[in-house]
Amino acid sequence: MKHARFDMTETGSALTGHHSPATLGDRIALRIVKGMRVFADAFFARRYGHRAVVLETVAAVPGMVGGLLQHLKALRHIRDDQGWIRELLDEADNERMHLMTFIQIAQPSRLERGIIMLAQAVFYNVYFFLYLLAPKTAHRIVGYLEEEAVISYSHYLEMLDAGEVENVAAPAIAIGYWKLAPEARLRDVVLAVRADEARHRDVNHGFADQIGAGQHP
């Protein structure tokens, strides 16, 4: 099944796109992500800045794990990785920059910092063995996780537009990383981050599809 491409524009209806699960692994991946969404909704409610901090902590893990394991596989099989390693490592670094940005915006409490450490420790180990044993499902989980990220950032934008969240000045780290205008605001940052997440979603669903079709790097 082909994964629908997503429009990166602010108003593109394709942002609401969804990859329909076609296999048992896809359904398991979707259930895992929906379970994570229930936890996020219960703990953070509509505090999307704080939600973003924990979300990006988790989202920064898969690319590093996938890049490492693809690197080792390429060495074992003495073959080219076809760009997978760089793509995954770039994804991890991009998600790390999301985290660095929202930490400055949300200023997480000690409790939330503790949750960040716990979430990262648990998710890293679980995802490492999942990718080792079932890389297709691992990439599908990330694809669904990024779908949820796009939804969350869209809600964040709605709150900014409604005046429920102050549209503060963009942090310097965000202005430098995304090359935003010096007068950029939080809304500009959220738009940039949402576009990143949409791309990661497409890439990971695409990788899952390639693995499912036997097209390993």
Low-confidence stretches: 1-13
Number of helices: 7
Instruction: Please summarize the sheet with the most strands.
Output: none
Note the beta-strand portion.
under 5%
Radius of gyration: 17 Å
Query: Mind telling me the CATH superfamily name?
Result: Alternative oxidase
Describe the protein's topology.
Elements: H1 24-44, H2 48-77, H3 84-106, H4 110-133, H5 135-161, H6 172-178, H7 186-212
Describe the structure.
This protein has a single domain (36-211), classed as Up-down Bundle (Ferritin). It has 7 helices and no strands. It has helices spanning 24-44, 48-77, 84-106, 110-133, 135-161, 172-178, 186-212. The chain is globular. Mean pLDDT is 85; it is low at 1-13.
How would you summarize this macromolecular structure in one to three sentences?
With 217 residues, the chain is mostly helical. It has a single domain, classed as Up-down Bundle (Ferritin), CATH 1.20.1260.140.
State the main characteristics.
217 residues; mainly alpha; Ferritin; 0% strand
